[in-house]
Amino acid sequence: MSESSLKDVNVLIVEDEPLYSKVLEIELKDLGCIIAGVATNGDDAIKVLKEKTVDIILLDIVIEGDKDGIDIGNFIKENLDIPFIFTSSMTSQEVIDRAKTTKPSGYLVKPFDTEDLIISMQVALYKDDDIKYN
To answer: Which of 28, 29, 30, 58 lies most in the core, judged by the most C-beta atoms within 10 Å?
Structure first.
């Protein structure tokens, strides 16, 4: 799978740091991805998931609101069949143990580079068995 295999992939970014979110959005657009939405909190993320086509979610753990990214990960696991990758600077074992229970497609520790993002997204989409991305 090449970098171009991310072309036309619909991505939801859940990130509450505006600068980081914007950089991620620009990188993804440069890779040919379509930004399905950018959410800063769990409620907005769920709204995008209900209204738009989303192929993959980049999900920060610490976000605005009363639901954190792990809560959203649980919602996705229980209600949707969409791969998601945690993107977080949180590396404590307690957080990792909580995150694992959601069965994410990956966990990228911030700051990460574009190559790590590409590889993680390719693996997540491949594991999702969607023939469109093979």
So the answer is: 58
Q: Give Cα separations from 84 to 58, 103, 110 (angstroms).
A: 6, 9, 16
Q: How crowded is residue 7: how many other Cβ atoms within 10 Å of its Cβ?
A: 12
Say if residues 60 and 111 touch (Cβ distance below 8 Å).
no
Sheet of 84-88, strand order? 34-39, 10-14, 56-59, 84-88, 106-109
pTM metric for this prediction: 0.91
Residues 59-77 pLDDT 10s:
999 999 999 999 999 999 9
Q: Which residues of 102-124 are buried (b: 16+ CB within 10 A; e: fewer)?
A: bebbbbbeeeeeeeebbebbbeb
Task: Report pLDDT digits (tens) over 117-134.
Answer: 999 999 999 875 544 444
